[in-house]
Predict the structure.
Amino acid sequence: MRKTVIAGNWKMNMTPAETKAFITELAPMVAGLDKCDIVLCVPAIDIPAAVEAAKGTNIKIGAENVHFKESGAYTGEISAKMLVEAGVDYVVVGHSERRQYFGETDQTVNLRTLAAVNAGLTAIVCVGETLEQRNLGYTETLLKYQTKMALTGITKDQLKNIVVAYEPVWAIGTGVTATADQADEGNGFVRAAIAEVYGADVAETVTVQYGGSMNDGNAAELLSKVNVDGGLIGGASLKTDKFTAIVKAAN
Ligand code: PEP
């Protein structure tokens, strides 16, 4: 059985006060919906407020990035140890916005993934093709390459702390969602890449999410697909009613 994980990615939205208000409102709405992990990945400044507000609820808190070194002269960065001590369970690694705007490469995604997992965090590793790459027919090759690169050095045992999110870049924040079949196919390519390295039995145990304009209207169909084990949700995670509807679809 694979764990279903519904994770919000707030990006650069919400202040600490708004975070507290949001989680206080959300907690009773998702109480008892325990057939999936419910995660909110929030800006670093919001983590203390989020952890405090989520205490005693079934909501877990994630970060949106992690540095690969334990400490040192890396102005503006946050280490895995800092996140663990702050009460964080999950961290997004290699989101396409970080690849696009902040020079994230497959190598740094791999280093961040290793740092996160070695510190005991669960890494949500993002992979996905651009529209141009899809139109050129590179989707499978690229997803397999990104997945294998990101997981280099991760042991079979550590895979229990890995979630891979297939996020077609053309579907993120655009309102254009992959069809359920496209999502299932992309997630299948990710799982096949994991199988090529770790074996099919192991690959069957790894949670592979879909992300890209998932919302309260399309979640049920996307989540019904055999390879879709949850969602990474941007825009729709900023509204308690929409996010709750997605969590309910996963339950
Ligand atoms: C994301 O930020 O990972 C994402 C999928 O965003 P959206 O749901 O807004 O497309």
Summary: The radius of gyration is 17 Å. The CA atoms of residues 122 and 243 lie 21 Å apart. The pocket of phosphoenolpyruvate is lined by residues 9, 11, 167, 172-173, 211-214, 232-236 (CB under 6 Å).
